[in-house]
Amino acid sequence: MVGLKPPEVPPTAAMKFVSAGMAGCIADLCTFPLDTAKVRLQIQGEVRIPRTISSVEYRGVLGTLSTMVRTEGARSLYSGLAAGLQRQMSFASIRIGLYDSVKQLYTPKGAENTGMATRLLAGCTTGAVAVACAQPTDVHPTPGSSPPPDNIPCHFVAAFGAGFCATVVASPVDVVKTRYMNSSPGQYRNALSCLLALLMQDGPAGLYKGFVPSFLRLSSWNVVMFVSYEQLQRALVLARPALA
């Protein structure tokens, strides 16, 4: 580890940009099989599934992973990894690497602390820009209290909590998106018709198909990503004098 304490010299925007992209790739390398399992569970029961897997029934995270290895080989767990890494180099770099810069842009001059609304606006801005660019390929402290220590346990807990909240909110959209993208041309008129067909077939519970692997993947991705991000930033700050 480079160190548990923040560096005395803050990293530049370029360092944050590069660190975020590299950290996103590291997180994808560690969690990609969980994402693959999530997709297989989400499209299970769909009318149109590739013939190679149409007769296979997946049960749970470990069951899905073991079935894939047994029937398709271990390489199937990382199918599409190259595209995922390319996406992270642009998506994570913008969404996370530029977050602090955009947050400072929205923060009023002379303000001692950044409010929650400003943080949300900055996150939405970088997220929207990241989606636009990559699609083709903290809590405010109570006055008088000290913030949580900026260390690995803090990053771990915050990332897991954020992963759970994000999964609960985004899982229905993710399931519909996966079904819609997996469908044959003309099977659904639009995303809404896909949603209605899913509800008719599986009921409301169908919106949370693959929830466990999705939560495990997103939470572990956040943990690996943000821990790697902080360490890479600090490594670049320490290496800067030697590179100058």
UniProtKB/TrEMBL annotation:
Principal subcellular localization: membrane
Location in the cell: Membrane
Any Pfam family the entry gives: Mito_carr
GO BP, sorted A to Z: transmembrane transport
Solcar repeats (start-end): 11-105, 150-235
Superkingdom assignment: Eukaryota
InterPro entries: MCP, MCP_dom_sf, MCP_transmembrane, Mito_Metabolite_Transporter
Cellular compartments per GO CC: membrane
Topology with respect to the bilayer: Multi-pass membrane protein
Keywords: Membrane, Repeat, Transmembrane, Transmembrane helix, Transport
SUPFAM superfamilies: Mitochondrial carrier (SSF103506)
UniProt record similarity statement: Belongs to the mitochondrial carrier (TC 2.A.29) family.
Record's protein name: UCP3 protein
